[in-house]
Amino acid sequence: PAAAAPAAVAASAEGEEEEEEDDDDDDDADYTYGYDQLPSSRKKKAPSLSRMLETVTRARAFSAPPMPPLSLPSLPPLPSLPPLPSLPPLPSLPPLPSLQPAVQLAQDLVNSVGMPSLQDTMARARDMLLPRPGPPRRLEQFVDRLSNFSSQYGTQSYSADNVVGPPRIFPRYGDYTHAMVLRTYGKWWRCLPGAAPALPAPPGPTSVIPSDFIEVHFDIAVVPSAVTIFETYNPGSVSRILALPVGPGSAWVCLWAGRCLPGRDQNSRAFSPLLKTVDFATCLLRIEFDHSDLDYFTEIDAILLQGTEPSSPHALAPRPHGLACLPLCAPTPAPAPAAAA
């Protein structure tokens, strides 16, 4: 028995090896002949293979043929749109009617009733409906055109039109051809045989007979508060400043009158005297000159008018050309050539 034991063990080992080889051959047959040819006993040993084959079979059953490439047709170009028609301009709206007459009528009715409560209510409504006037606007403006003058030294150089516009010489001092220069100076000029006759008495009370004058117009009518005359050569000949109120039938009003002492230090001067306080608007000034105390011609560069806009709208209406430019004094004719020499 002891000798037979090894032999039995060896035989059993050989039998196991043969079974393993048969199993390997059977596995190869599983992959070679397919899953369907396997016996049921072998199918149970290959569950993963069955699931794999089932997945492949379903994928083949539902696989579709490749789609051909899509070719989209080219779209035609969009047609060009016609231009939009131009819209007609909006009509101008008529101005809103003024509430002043209606408010004044209601105020008169309430005052006639005499009830304090209604009067208080009307006063509050008046403050709400009617605009409150703001502070008056202050303006500074130079001459925009020459209206009248008594004489001038030249028609191009030293002409009276040179007073129009802002200063071009001030604060320089000297004899410049683009300044306004009048024809006379000193007392001896009137004693010459060809001297022009004396000017008539100026408008308004005065004790000084002017030698010359100019009347200048401004663009906007204002209540005058200051007038500045830029004298750039031999200053000191201004004797009066007058203003013509806006409105028909108005007369000249003197804003300042006095005797200016000629300057001896050869400096230009911005002459601005203290004016009389007035409550009217004007756009026309008259500057009068007395050259009797001068040793040579005087020259004016510009004239500045300062003031506030009036509260009444009619005072701002432009004055027609020529209405305020009527000569108050006849222009002085030019002296004879011998006298000029």
Task: Describe the protein in words.
The chain is of the alpha+beta class and 341 residues long. Helices cover 24% and strands 20% of the residues. Strands 1, 2, 3, 4, 5, 6, 7, 8 and 9 form a 9-stranded antiparallel β-sheet that branches. Strand 5 and strand 6 (253-257) form a beta hairpin. The chain is elongated, with a radius of gyration of 57 Å.
Please trace the helix and strand order, writing H or E for each element. Answer: HHHHHEEEEEEEEEH
Q: Please report the number of helical segments.
A: 6
The end-to-end span amounts to 181 Å
Measured as a percent range, the helix fraction is 10-25%
Kindly state the number of beta strands.
9
Structural class: alpha+beta
Largest sheet, strands/sense/barrel: 9 strands, antiparallel
Radius of gyration: 57 Å
The overall pLDDT average reads: 74
Uncertain segments are 28-33, 314-341
**What is the approximate shape?**
elongated
Strand content: 15-25%
Descriptive terms for the model:
341 residues, alpha+beta, nine-stranded antiparallel sheet, 6 helices, 9 strands, 24% helix, disordered C terminus
Short structural description:
The protein has helices spanning 4-33, 40-43, 47-62, 100-113, 116-129, 337-340; strands spanning 138-142, 145-149, 180-181, 212-233, 238-245, 253-257, 269-271, 282-289, 299-308. It is an alpha+beta fold and 341 residues long. Strands 1, 2, 3, 4, 5, 6, 7, 8 and 9 form a nine-stranded antiparallel β-sheet that branches.
